[in-house]
Each structure stands twice: as structure tokens, then as C-alpha cells.
Amino acid sequence: MTTTDREVRIAHGVLDLAHRRTGFDPLELLHDLTAEAVALLPVRSAGITVLEPDGTGVVYVTASDELCLALEEDQIELNEGPCLDSARSRRPLPVLSLSEPPASIRWPRFAPRARRAGITAVAAVNLHLPQLSLGALNLLMAGPPFPGTHDLRLAQTLADAAGAALAFRQQLADKDQVLDQLQTALDSRLVIEQAKGVLSARLGVDMDEAFQRLRAHARSRQQKLTDLAARITRGDVPTDLLEPAR
To answer: Which Pfam families does UniProt cross-reference here (predicted)?
Structure first.
């Protein structure tokens, strides 16, 4: 049996998500989870939604790109959509076409809005710890080929690897510790959005490009993404981050 390049990439992706250095940034881990999903699966975008710490609602944490981020915000505004349902139900969603029932009936306002943005189908897998459901990894597709059974199992494996890293960070923590950690990630999300805006304006690039440069800079210097973002929002932009991309 010959090992393929994709199998090597999958093994590397799972290892990268599951094993993090001590004190890692949970928000950066979830960003990486969406990036790995897009890189390894036949999907256009991926995002993370979680149950609020008090369990009363659902909020988005991060997304692989601005399109997914906008659609996550739309679902919060409309109070309907696959990302909300998957987090609330604590159950995975199979691949559902947004052009026909049950999705077009289940999400009558979100489905046409997503189609206008170019998204034709959705799916989701659980994001959880051994004894605690956190939310969902949501997958958005722009056309065939759509994820098959094995692809969705891979998506669940990636989400499980990230969940294992979160559990290890808290040394198999209790529920309150994990929820505090998630709340910190939600607070950090706003700082990162502000930093993306600063970089976008300074570099003259779109928000997706600004985010990619932000992540690449943090990773190459083993900095926490949120620390770098906070520094940028204070007006202290690293000089080498403003240099043209190579």
C-alpha cells in the first residue's frame, strides 16, 4: 500500500491540531481547525459556532474566510440556519442542499441568502470534549463534489483532535474552566477583527488577505494570535508585517 500526499497532509493536520505547546491560544486552535477543514475536504468554507457559556444561545467564534463569517453573522441575525441548529442540537448535520427540502423549508430566510452568496449545500460535525458538547464545525459547499461519508468522518476526526487539545490544555478540566476558556476566545475574536481592519487599511488588501498575513506572522514567530492582534490595535504594527508579501 502506497502512502499518498493527501494522507500525509491529513496525518500532519490531525497531529498539529491535537498537540499544542503549553499555554496555546484556543482561538488560534479553532482558526486552524477551520483552515485544515478547507484544505483537506471538498468545502468552500468552514466556521465554528459554540453554545454560550450560560447555555442560552449560540455564537460564532471564527471562520475560514469573510464569506463564511458573513453567513454566520446572518444566521445570528435571522435566528435560523445550519450553524445554529448543529450547535443547539449537539448533533451532526448530513450534507443538505440549500435549494430543496428539508433545508429550504427549515431555513426559509437563510437558504436563499446563502445561495445568493454562492453556497449551495451545508453540513456540520460536533465539536466536543469527552463529557461536554461545545458546538459545531460547520462546512459550506459551493458546488460538487460534495463531502461523502468518509469526508465527514475526517471532519469529525479533525474536530475531535481540536477537542482533545482543548481538554488537555485544561488537564481534562471541569466544565466551568472550559467555558471560561471559550469566553476568552469570544472576547479575543473582537480584537482580531479590529486587527484585520487595521492591516487591511494599512496594506491595501482585503480582509481575508489581512487575516492570512496576521496568522502567518504569529505562527512564524510563535506568538499568540490574540497577543499580536492586541498589539496591532494599539497602533504598534510590526514593521516586517507591513512589507510586501513574498
So the answer is: ANTAR (PF03861), GAF_2 (PF13185)
User: pLDDT tens-digit profile of 212-228?
Assistant: 888 888 888 888 888 89
CA distance 162 to 181: 14
7 with 119, same domain? yes
The Cα-based distances of 115 to 16, 68, 74, 80, 84 in angstroms read: 33, 12, 13, 15, 18
Domain count, the chain: 2
Name the amino acid, one letter, at 175: K
Strands 132-141 and 93-97: unpaired
Q: Are 84 and 75 in contact (CB under 8 A)?
A: yes
Nearest to 43 by CA among 147, 125, 156: 147
Residues 47-69 pLDDT 10s = 998 887 666 788 888 889 999 99
CB neighbour list of residue 209: distance below 8 Å, 6 or more residues apart:
200, 203
On whether the CB atoms of residues 35 and 234 are closer than 8 A, the answer is no
CA angle, residues 181, 185, 189, in degrees to nearest 5: 170
Question: For residue 158, what are the domain limits?
Answer: 3-172
Residue after which a domain boundary falls, among 151, 172, 193 = 172
Q: Are residues 184 and 158 in the same domain?
A: no
- The C-alpha cell at 105 is 423549508
Could you give the CA distance from residue 81 to residue 140 in angstroms, rounded to a whole number? Answer: 12
Rounded to whole angstroms, the maximal C-alpha distance in the chain is 54
CATH number of the domain to which 185 belongs: 1.10.10
